[in-house]
Amino acid sequence: MATYFVKLSNGYKGQAADKCDYITRNGKYQSETLRQELVASESFNLPSWAPDSKTFFTAADKFERTNGTTFKQFIIMLPCELDDDENIKIAQDIKDKIIGDNKAGIWVIHSKQAITANVQNVHLHIMNSERIQDAALKEKPPEQYFKRYNPSNPEQGGYKKDRKNLCRKRAKNPEIDKIRALIADAINAGYERNGFDIRVSGTTLEMQKEEALKAGDEDRAEFFDRVL
Asked: What is the pLDDT of residues 81-124, one digit of tens each?
């Protein structure tokens, strides 16, 4: 049975470069075991002053304000039924759908033996800056890139942050539901391309339980009454 899992978290000043090393299996994370889990990676939308994602996120750690958010991280389960090439296509599709072409970052696919089943745990990390690179402005150097946005004079401050993906424990954000649906679309397209009659849903367990109850399907509602 296909599993849908998406986790979104924030990273803060001083954490970005280390997280980048962790997901790319570099720096202190270069053990043979960890390196074997690395399937593929791709940096995206980096400014010209950053030859790689580590350089970019090191600058975020240095120039972002104290206690500021330096990155968002998505962890997304990918289909273990599909091969690496197909999961790479899905990763690129997800990045295009939920990040776009104006925020910098990196995606990485890991694959390792699942703990509870005899299958591979294939998952995608997307690590991106919230800073929206404005093509109408001259590219900002690192010391300005991460400064506070100046709405009156955008050329004088840093790039504006994308706040659509705010995740607060006690406040529901409808944008998150849209993102979950887009991720499910990309995964299902991969299944369809490869002839699998498998589909996942980005709808939350709570909503799926509610829909089952409305349809009078108590067995199905009970299936969704669980914590992941």
From this structure: 999 999 999 999 999 999 999 999 999 999 998 877 778 899 99
Angle made by CA atoms 102, 73, 148, in degrees to the nearest 5: 55
105, 71 Cβ separation under 8 angstroms: yes
Q: For the residues of 2-29, what is the DSSP string, one character each?
A: ----EEEEEEETTSHHHHHHHHHT-GGG
Which pLDDT value is given to residue 110?
A: 98
Specify whether the CB–CB gap between 92 and 42 falls below 8 A. yes
- CB 5, CB 228: distance < 8 Å: yes
Strand 120-128 versus strand 69-77 pairing type: antiparallel
Q: What is the pLDDT of residues 189-208, one digit of tens each?
A: 999 999 999 999 987 555 55
CA-based nearest residue to 130, from 185, 204, 56: 56
The burial class, CB within 10 Å (0-12 / 13-18 / 19+), for 30 is exposed
Q: Cβ of 155: how many Cβ atoms within 10 Å?
A: 11
Q: Is 184 helix (H, G, I), strand (E, B) or coil?
A: helix
**Distance, CA of 28 to CA of 9 (rounded, Å):** 22
pTM of the model: 0.87
SS3 210: helix
b or e along 36-51 (b: 16 or more beta carbons within 10 Å of the residue's beta carbon)?
A: ebbbbbebbbbbeebe
Look at the block and give the residue holding tokens 């690496």: 84
Check pLDDT > 50 for residue 154: yes
Three-class SS state of 178: helix
